[in-house]
Structure formats: structure tokens, C-alpha cells
């Protein structure tokens, strides 16, 4: 599962969106995956339910969240989407998020060994949140993903398959 390829194939980058709540932000992040057929509608409900039960466990760093749920909650195929918000939304733990990268993984193995390293590589770029929020086009986001390919986190990963 290649991050850049998944963004292109699913047409799943949406920039400069507005959300009034964290639930709405999560919905906006999952919508491209529903539209592309990567996940079923119930995937969104599963994310909301697990967030209410366990808290926003998918806030990975200040300003960034990776909403996701279990593969059996409606995942049809591996995919990613990325949205940016014009202003941050506050989650139940008090953390503000402005970039959401939704993940649909068909197995926990893909989630851990393939998806997470690519996400770390992208977000370890200097000022990644600020840069993503300032992106005006999908191409600018894809260029950042390309830039992140030199990360040591991606050594040994076959991202072409």
C-alpha cells in the first residue's frame, strides 16, 4: 500500500475544508474513502463509536489525527485519505487537530508495517502540519509525500507492490 498511489487512485486529498466538530472532521476525512469504495458507510460509525469508548487514540502528534477502525468494520481495500481544515477542531481530550489522514487497512499487519512508517515519514518532515495546511493543491501534497520517501522509516519497505 503506497501512500502517494492511494491518494491518487482514491482521489482522496481534500484541502481547506471546514468542520464545526471532531465528528464532522472525521466524517470529512472518511468521505473520500466511502466515495472510492475503499470502505463502507459503517466505517465512519465504527470510528466514532471507538473514539467515544476509548478516546481519540489516533491523534499521533499535535495537530494531526489518523482516524481508523478495525478492518472488519467495513474496509473493502487498503487506502488513505488526507484532509486539511481551515481551523482546528478540538477532540474530547482537549487536543486540537487540523490535518486528518484517514486509514483503511485490510489487516493489522498492513496497518503496522506498511501504513504507519509512511505516515511517520510524511509527518517527520520539518513543519509538516503547517506545510500541509498551507498546501493549495493536491500536487503540493503529493510532492511532500515524494519528499518523505528518503526517510529511514521506509528502508526495506516495498512500496511499489
Automatic annotation (TrEMBL):
Question: Which GO terms of the molecular function aspect are on file?
Answer: kinase activity
**One Gene Ontology CC term in the entry:** cytoplasm
Q: What is its main location?
A: cytoplasm
Keywords, comma-separated and alphabetical: Cytoplasm, Kinase, Phosphoprotein, Phosphotransferase system, Transferase, Transport
Database matches in Gene3D superfamilies:
Mannitol-specific EII, Chain A
| Location(s) in or outside the cell | Cytoplasm
| GO terms for biological process, alphabetical | phosphoenolpyruvate-dependent sugar phosphotransferase system
One Pfam match: PTS_EIIA_2
Could you tell me which InterPro entries the record lists for this protein?
Ascorbate-PTS_EIIA_comp, PTrfase/Anion_transptr, PTS_EIIA_type-2_dom
Which residue intervals define the domain PTS EIIA type-2 in the entry? 6-148
Summarizing the function annotation, the protein's role is:
The phosphoenolpyruvate-dependent sugar phosphotransferase system (sugar PTS), a major carbohydrate active transport system, catalyzes the phosphorylation of incoming sugar substrates concomitantly with their translocation across the cell membrane. The enzyme II UlaABC PTS system is involved in ascorbate transport.
Task: Please state what the protein is called.
Answer: Ascorbate-specific PTS system EIIA component
Q: Which organism is it from?
A: Streptococcus henryi
Amino acid at each position: 500500500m503506497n501512500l502517494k498511489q492511494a491518494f491518487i487512485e482514491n482521489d482522496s486529498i481534500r484541502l481547506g475544508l471546514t468542520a464545526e466538530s471532531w465528528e464532522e472532521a472525521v466524517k470529512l476525512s472518511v468521505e473520500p474513502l466511502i466515495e472510492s469504495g475503499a470502505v463502507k458507510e459503517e466505517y465512519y460509525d465504527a470510528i466514532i463509536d471507538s473514539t467515544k469508548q476509548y478516546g481519540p487514540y489516533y491523534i499521533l502528534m499535535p495537530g494531526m489525527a489518523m482516524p481508523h477502525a478495525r478492518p472488519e468494520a467495513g474496509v473493502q481495500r487498503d487506502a488513505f485519505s488526507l484532509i486539511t481544515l481551515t481551523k482546528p477542531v478540538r477532540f474530547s481530550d482537549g487536543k486540537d487537530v487540523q490535518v486528518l489522514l484517514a486509514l483503511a487497512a485490510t489487516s493489522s499487519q498492513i496497518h503496522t508495517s506498511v501504513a504507519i512508517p509512511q505516515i511517520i515519514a510524511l509527518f517527520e518532515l520539518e513543519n509538516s502540519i503547517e506545510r500541509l495546511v498551507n498546501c493549495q493543491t493536491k500536487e503540493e501534497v503529493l510532492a511532500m509525500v515524494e519528499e518523505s520517501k528518503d526517510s529511514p522509516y521506509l528502508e526495506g519497505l516495498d512500496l511499489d507492490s
